[in-house]
Design brief:
The protein folds into 2 domains: 55 residues, no CATH class; 65 residues, 3-Layer(aba) Sandwich (Dihydrofolate Reductase, subunit A). Helices cover 20% and strands 26% of the residues. The radius of gyration is 16 Å and the shape is globular. The N and C termini lie far apart (39 Å). The relative contact order is 0.14.
């Protein structure tokens, strides 16, 4: 976890293959651990958000699953130019994202690239 008082101050849904009881933390954060499809988790998060924004955080597998399901309206991804030689590739199976998203790439002097994806109006 992130200490006794996490910075979220809101319900937080964790996708996991090992669900467990929810954990209530100080400051209004409650972690809910769900073994469910991305659409189901997003539905639960939207209900808990009561009209507020819902943010998705995670590694490449989570990002790819939500993108493939068409569940992301806006995404900010930070890409670091380090080749580790193994791991999960973010873009596998996500061909033609530019058809559905306006994409902006901004490189920083640190060589980090900020990629912003905004869903195109339908």
């Amino acid at each position: 976890m992130v200490g006794p008082e996490p910075p979220f101050h809101t319900p937080t849904f964790v996708l996991t293959h090992r669900p467990r009881p929810s954990i209530e933390m100080e400051g209004g954060t409650t972690f809910h651990f769900l073994d469910a499809a991305p659409a189901e988790v997003l539905c639960a998060a939207r209900e808990a958000a009561d009209g507020q924004d819902v943010r998705i955080g995670g590694g490449p597998t989570v990002v790819r699953d939500f993108l493939a399901a068409g569940l992301i309206d806006h995404m900010h991804l930070v890409q670091v130019p380090i080749v580790l030689g193994r791991g999960v590739r973010v873009w596998d199976g996500l061909q033609a994202l530019e058809d559905d998203y306006d994409i902006e790439a901004v490189s920083a002097p640190s060589r980090v690239t900020h990629l912003t994806f905004d869903r195109k109006p339908s």
